[in-house]
Amino acid sequence: MHKYAPMMTRGIGVTFQEFEGLNSRIAEFPQYKQTRNHMWTISAGSMHVMKNFVSQLSVTGGSSLTGDPDERSSTMRTLSGGFDLGYDLIPADMIMLYPMVGIGGECYTAVFYKDVNAVDFDDVAASPGVQNSIRSLKFKNSFVTYRFGLGLAFKSPKHPGTIGIQGGYAGAFKERTWRSAENQFLNGAPSDDINRWSVSLVLTGGGMMMKK
Questions:
Q1: Is the model's pLDDT at 50 over the cut of 80?
Q2: What DSSP state is assigned to residue 81?
Q3: What's the number of domains the chain is made of?
Q4: Closest by CA position to 193, among listed 144, 132, 137
């Protein structure tokens, strides 16, 4: 059997999520551009393995890395956290293969920019109305999710820690409507759910793999 002391984890990856309800509504307003269906992510957390049972706690931030405040554009940002339990299927010292299930929470912010290149400086300085007209449009949403994943990790015989890949799927327990930037309810707002796929390169360190 294998045992880990609790180890720090760090990851970088990409996640795919299409918000069809929000984008179909935004498409009715040509001054705004729809959001993309992927975000780049970074994560940090901890992992513990004991008698082949795996537990993992993680926090993830992500962004589509798009959006130019001077142009017609959009960006999607996310912050999430989750707890997963799994089991190492391979009883070997240097490799782990572990399916996981878990639960998490996810928050999203969609930001939409208009083309403001034709707006005059003096008009902005003189008019509160013009000031408001060039501000970005923001909507927020949040979800409680269930998660399924699969991890593959390798350990160097000379160094502590592992390098590996984790892939997974997250789904929402129910659809949620989009809210204002101040998290206010909006009548007739579109709703979405989560059907998100992800893959990450994950590094662990700060613990030693031992045989028991």
A1: yes
A2: E
A3: 1
A4: 144
